[in-house]
Amino acid sequence: MTDTWLIVGLGNPGSEYSGNRHNVGQMVLDELASRIGGKFKVHKSRAQVVEGRMGIGGPRVVLAKPMTYMNVSGGPVSALAKFFDVAPDHVIAVHDEIDIPFNTVKLKIGGGEGGHNGLRDISKALATKDYLRVRVGVGRPPGRMDTADFVLRDFATPEKKDLPFLLDEAADAVELLITEGLLSAQQKHHAARS
């Protein structure tokens, strides 16, 4: 296996979804792509991909935005992992998370998918849950709103003001995860919030 990292931003394809809470993972990938000076290109694995290095002389990274719908993200992720020879412990899924407040980022490896169908499909396709996750908090739906309706809506106007900071923080978390490892990234990142 190579020392390449595969960073996958989850979301749905198409401009009508691009501002949705469910697409926050792809928004983070856009931020990471701008940091490494890359532009997304279509890859045969049904994903848009940017290849580059994290920092000068840093580790090689493949940033990927599946072009499939969220619930079937596993196929492209598995195909990319095979193509770039990336082990599951070097796969990072960046995704929306309703179980943590908006404007919060948490990191973990493995564990349950918390009802997130995109993660469930990736776990199935990789035949393991032991890949890294950068969980970007979008908060819970208000009142009795259906969760699916909530995540398929754009961020509210007050949230949009803070969104660039959230994307920046999530991109920082990905970089820390790669350069310093999960424990160090969790200590720095989770401590900053408490």
UniProtKB/TrEMBL annotation:
GO cellular component, one term: cytoplasm
Keyword Nucleotide-binding applies: no
This protein's name: Peptidyl-tRNA hydrolase
Coiled-coil region(s): none
PROSITE patterns reported in the protein's UniProt record: PEPT_TRNA_HYDROL_1 (PS01195), PEPT_TRNA_HYDROL_2 (PS01196)
Alphabetical list of InterPro entries matching this protein: Pept_tRNA_hydro, Pept_tRNA_hydro_CS, Pept_tRNA_hydro_sf
Active site positions, chain numbering: H22
The encoding gene: pth
Keywords from the UniProt entry: Cytoplasm, Hydrolase, RNA-binding, tRNA-binding
